[in-house]
Amino acid sequence: MASACAGMVSAASLSARQVNGVRARQPVRAPVRAAFAVKADAAAVAAQKIRIRLKSFEVKHMAAACDKIIEAAKATEASISGPVPLPTKRRIYCVLRSPHVNKDSREHFETRTHHRLIDVHQPTAQTIDALMGLELPAGVEIEVKL
């Protein structure tokens, strides 16, 4: 038994010893105050800008949604940059006109996805509440990043 236990290394002595030529790692501990300071700085930076991305197949619905967002943000005295038009994605589908014959006869259909970007700078709590309470047109996808 003594010979079996002689090769074993206790967990407490791992930090100071080497096992089979490999130096054991010591856990790195950050000060508690520094972790809270980093989170507070991140929250302060995040509160300075809200980025809103809109996607839609219809330009009219997109324009209506942009107008509502801008009105709500300006009513709470937040500064806005946008709407910035981003590149439109075109998805083209090629379909045979008949199921069995005339392979050379095809139809092309496309969907266009329009994108807009709106940045709300220096938002307040009222700005966030106003943006959350908006009724936007159906068919507009919204992605909000703080």
List descriptors.
146 residues, alpha+beta, four-stranded antiparallel sheet, two-stranded antiparallel ribbon, 4 helices, 6 strands, 31% helix, elongated, disordered N terminus
User: Any idea what the radius of gyration is?
Assistant: 29 Å
Task: Give a count of the beta strands, DSSP E runs of length 2 or more.
Answer: 6
Q: What structural class is derived from the secondary structure elements?
A: alpha+beta
Task: Indicate the overall shape.
Answer: elongated
Distance between the termini: 62 Å
Strand composition percent: 35-45%
Main beta-sheet annotation? 4 strands, antiparallel
Task: Give an overview of the whole structure.
It is a single chain. The chain contains four helices and six strands. The chain has 146 residues and is an alpha+beta fold. The strands form two sheets. The chain has a four-stranded antiparallel sheet with strand order 4-5-3-6. Strands 1-2 form a two-stranded antiparallel ribbon. Helix 3 packs antiparallel against helix 4 (125-132). The N and C termini lie far apart (62 Å).
